[in-house]
Design brief:
single chain, seven-stranded mixed β-sheet, 13 helices, 24 strands, 468 residues, alpha/beta, 31% helix, five-stranded parallel β-sheet
C-alpha cells in the first residue's frame, strides 16, 4: 500500500460517513489510501445515529399502525412493545450494513488501521500517529465527526440522564420522559417514545421546535405533537435538575418543575477535535470546528477537513458529499480528473427530521430568501388535497419560495412520507429550476409527489387545486 519511503497519497482520520466516502472515492480514482478508525467503520451514523434511530422510528410507525388499524378496517391489537426486540431489529439492520461496508472498503484495497489517530508534525508535512505507527501521506483528511453535547452540571449518567447514544440502548421504556432540546434528535426520539406509549414532554429554550427550519413547519409540527399527546414547552430554559432514586426533576425558568423517570439531553452535537493534536500542527479551530475554505482545505498545506468537524449542517449525507468532494479535489490536483469538482453548499443539502409527521426541506427559508433577494413569492399546497396523503391519513403542506421571475430557492414540507419527496425538491433547488420548468412535468397519480407538482403549477400561475 505504500512506496519504499512509507508515504501514501492519502490518510483519512476517521471512518464515519465523511471519512469512508473520501477513502472509497480516492481509491476508485487510483490513490493509495490508509483509513484510521479506532472503533468500527461507519461511525456515528451507522452505529449510534441515523440508522438505528430510523429503525426505532420504523418500529414506532408499526406500533402506531397497529394501534390505529381499526381506522382502515383491520382488526388488530397492540399488546405491548418488546424493547429488546426493537433493539435486536435495529442491531440487525446495522450489522448487515456494517458487513457490506467493511467488505466494500476491503475490496477497494484500502488499508484500515485500527487505532486512535493523532496529528503530528513530520518535517514539513503533517502525519498521523496511529498506535505505534507513524502514517505519512501527501494529504491528510480530518473526518473525526461529532459527539453529543451536554450542559454544564448536567452530565449524563446513562441511567436517569441520557444522551441519544444511551437512549438507543435502553432495555425498557420509561413511563415518563423529559426531552431537553427540540431540535432534530430531540423531536425524533420524542416521537418514537410517544408512539411506544411514553408520556413525553419536550423542553426547548428557544421559541419554537426545529429553530433552523421555516417557522410554518415548526408550528405545524408542534400542533401535530400536541395532538399526539406530546407536551411541548418552548421558550423554557432549564434552570436546574435533580436526580433521585425514583427519577429526575427538572426545574424551568418560572419555577415550573417537571418529574419524569429519565431526562434525555438532546441539545445538539459538538465536533470531535479535542486531543487530536490540532494545536501542535497549527490547525486553527473556531468554537471547536476546523477552519476551512469553501473547498474544505485548511490553512495547513495538505490537510483537509470534512463532515461534522466543519461548521455547518451536521448531517451524514453532507459529510459523505464532503468526502467525495475532497477525494476528487485531490485527484484533480494530481491530474487524475479533467474537471474540478463543485463545492458542497449547505443551502443545497436536503434536511429531514424523521418524526411523525416528518419535516423535510432544502434551500432557503422565506426570511433567508428575502434577506438575500429582497421580495420573494411563496405558495403553499395543503396535503389534504392530495389523494395519497388522504389514504395515508396525514395532513401537512408543501411550501415553495421563489425569486420573482426567477428560480425556486426553497422547498419546505411537513407530513408523513415527505422525506421521500426531498430528492425531487433538491433537484429543483440545485438546478435553479423555475416553476414554469417543473409545472409541465407529469407526476404519477396517486402519489404524494403530486403535491410538489401542484405547488409548482400554482407558482407558475396555473393553480389547479390551490385556492387563491
Amino acid at each position: 500500500m505504500s512506496d519504499p519511503e512509507g508515504v501514501v497519497d492519502l490518510v483519512v482520520l476517521g471512518g464515519g460517513s465523511g471519512g469512508y466516502a473520501c477513502a472509497l472515492r480516492a481509491a476508485e480514482l487510483g490513490l493509495r489510501v490508509q483509513l484510521v478508525e479506532a472503533a468500527e467503520l461507519g461511525g456515528t451514523c451507522l452505529h449510534r445515529g441515523c440508522i438505528p434511530t430510523k429503525a426505532w422510528l420504523h418500529s414506532a410507525e408499526v406500533a402506531d399502525a397497529v394501534r390505529d388499524s381499526a381506522k382502515v378496517g383491520i382488526t388488530a391489537r397492540l399488546e405491548g412493545v418488546d424493547v429488546p426486540g426493537v433493539r435486536s431489529y435495529a442491531d440487525g439492520v446495522v450489522q448487515r450494513l456494517f458487513r457490506g461496508l467493511t467488505g466494500l472498503v476491503r475490496s477497494r484495497g484500502i488499508e484500515v488501521v485500527a487505532a486512535r489517530g493523532v496529528l503530528e508534525r513530520d518535517g514539513d508535512r503533517v502525519a498521523v500517529r496511529a498506535g505505534d505507527r507513524l502514517l505519512r501521506a501527501e494529504h491528510v483528511v480530518v473526518a473525526t465527526g461529532s459527539a453529543p453535547r451536554t450542559l454544564p452540571g448536567m452530565e449524563p449518567d446513562g441511567q436517569r440522564v441520557l444522551t441519544s447514544d444511551h437512549a438507543l440502548r435502553l432495555d425498557r421504556l420509561p413511563e415518563r420522559a423529559v426531552v431537553l432540546g427540540g431540535g432534530v434528535i430531540g423531536c425524533e426520539l420524542a416521537s418514537a417514545w410517544r408512539s411506544f406509549g411514553v408520556e413525553v414532554t419536550v423542553v426547548e429554550a428557544l421559541e419554537r421546535l426545529l429553530p433552523g427550519e421555516e417557522p410554518a413547519l415548526s408550528q405545524a409540527l408542534q400542533r401535530a405533537f400536541v395532538r399526539r399527546g406530546i407536551e411541548v414547552l418552548t421558550g423554557s430554559p432549564v434552570t436546574s435538575h435533580r436526580v433521585g432514586p425514583d427519577g429526575v426533576e427538572v426545574t424551568l425558568a418560572g419555577d415550573r418543575t417537571l418529574s419524569a423517570d429519565l431526562l434525555l439531553v438532546a441539545v445538539g452535537r459538538g465536533p470531535v477535535t479535542a486531543g487530536l493534536g490540532v494545536e501542535e500542527v497549527g490547525l486553527p479551530l473556531e468554537r471547536g470546528f476546523v477552519v476551512t475554505d469553501e473547498r474544505l482545505a485548511t490553512p495547513v498545506p495538505g490537510v483537509w477537513a470534512v463532515g461534522d468537524v466543519v461548521h455547518g449542517l451536521q448531517l451524514a449525507h453532507r459529510g459523505f458529499a464532503h468526502g467525495v468532494f475532497v477525494a476528487e479535489e485531490i485527484a484533480f490536483g494530481r491530474g487524475l480528473l479533467e474537471r474540478a469538482p463543485e463545492p458542497v453548499r449547505d443551502e443545497r443539502v436536503p434536511r429531514v427530521t424523521y418524526c411523525d409527521p416528518e419535516v423535510a426541506s432544502v434551500g432557503l427559508t422565506q426570511a433567508q430568501a428575502e434577506q438575500r433577494h429582497g421580495e420573494v413569492q411563496t405558495v403553499r399546497y395543503d396535503l389534504t388535497g392530495n389523494g395519497r396523503s388522504q389514504i395515508r391519513g396525514t395532513s401537512g403542506f408543501v411550501q415553495l419560495v421563489r425569486v420573482p421571475d426567477g428560480p425556486v430557492v426553497g422547498v419546505h414540507m411537513v407530513g408523513a412520507g415527505v422525506s421521500e419527496l426531498i430528492s425531487e425538491a433538491q433537484l429543483v433547488v440545485g438546478w435553479e429550476a423555475w416553476p414554469e420548468d417543473v409545472a409541465p412535468l407529469v407526476h404519477a397519480h396517486p402519489t404524494q409527489s403530486e403535491a410538489l407538482g401542484e405547488a409548482h403549477l400554482a407558482l407558475a400561475g396555473k393553480p389547479l387545486h390551490v385556492h387563491g
